[in-house]
Design goal:
mainly alpha, 0% strand, Putative transporter protein CG10, elongated
């Protein structure tokens, strides 16, 4: 998604005069949408390093938000 984001910005900046904040908002929306579409790929067994059962994806996202916005350490060893 990041490389697609940069490529999209380059194309838009060359063709149109656009507000940077508006473009960033649109690109961020599409990054979230694309990431949500890609979530099931993390459950594939051949991805041994990041293999994540589908049932744990929601918990993983929730813990990420708690860590990012609330500063709570959700990693338990």
């Amino acid at each position: 998604p990041l490389s697609f984001s940069n490529m999209t910005r380059e194309i838009v900046f060359k063709k149109y005069k656009i507000n940077i904040l508006r473009l960033n908002a649109v690109v961020s929306f599409f990054q979230i949408f694309t990431s949500c579409l890609m979530l099931p790929m993390y459950t594939l067994p051949f991805l041994k390093q990041i293999n994540l059962p589908f049932s744990e994806i929601g918990t993983n996202i929730k813990n990420g938000f708690r860590c990012l916005f609330l500063g709570q350490n959700t990693i338990v060893e």
